[in-house]
Design brief:
about 220 residues, Dna Ligase, domain 1, 4-stranded antiparallel beta sheet, about 55% helix, about 5% strand, elongated
């Protein structure tokens, strides 16, 4: 039996095994590009299609490892993951800026910030100076939790997106109760962007798991 090939499509699913002739048909149809992850039956790793010289994609010949760690990243998915994870960090930072402004007597705030920190700051404005310090300490804790979601999200920890999104959705309820619909709308927009990271994390982790062995 000749060599066969298995690919990972743009949807993160495996297709194959197929013959070289069928793979070339998929290349002509645009289903296989230079960056498409391919597993050839005589190797033990996923590598970009460009590295197989028989496909004629213009690569400088390189050694395809018989074993070892395969390349499992997708540049587009990685970028979407980072952008989505960074939203947690932006929320943390802007929430602290909001707190500093409010505790200093200011009246403006960033709509991407957390509602819970504003609630904490509102209680603090009616207390003595010691209450302000305690409130800011609680603000730091809340912001720090969201910053951690961003940190772990960048490491493909899908749970951080799921938990972070749940907490941010609950935070939006504060604005609903306060009738601040503009902030509610922006919370919804940010949740949509975070969901993209949740999907990207799941797909990247799925690709990494498939490195163990291709489907047959």
């Amino acid at each position: 039996m000749g060599l066969t090939y298995t690919i990972i499509g743009t949807d993160g699913q495996q297709y194959g095994p197929i013959t070289l002739e069928q793979l070339r048909v998929w290349m002509r149809e645009g289903r296989v590009t230079r960056e498409t992850q391919v597993w050839r039956s005589d190797t033990n790793a996923w590598v970009p299609a460009v590295q197989y010289t028989e496909l004629g994609l213009g690569a400088t010949p390189v050694a395809v490892p018989a074993s070892g760690v395969a390349a499992t990243g997708d540049p587009m998915l990685e970028r979407r993951l980072r952008i989505s994870a960074d939203w947690f960090i932006w929320i943390a930072a802007l929430s602290l800026v909001n707190s500093v402004i409010r505790l200093s007597g200011g009246r403006i705030f960033f709509i991407f910030g957390l509602g819970i920190t504003q609630v904490i700051d509102s209680f603090a404005t009616g207390l003595a100076s010691g209450g302000t310090a305690v409130a800011f300490g609680l603000d730091l804790v809340a912001a720090g939790v969201f910053a951690l979601f961003g940190f772990f999200g960048r490491k493909r920890q899908t749970w951080s997106f799921a938990v972070g999104m749940s907490l941010y959705a609950l935070d939006a309820v504060i604005y609903v109760l306060g009738g601040d619909w503009l902030s509610v709308a922006f919370h919804g927009y940010v949740l949509y962007r975070m969901f993209g990271g949740l999907q990207a994390s799941g797909q990247l982790n799925g690709m990494a798991k498939r490195v163990v062995a291709p489907s047959v």
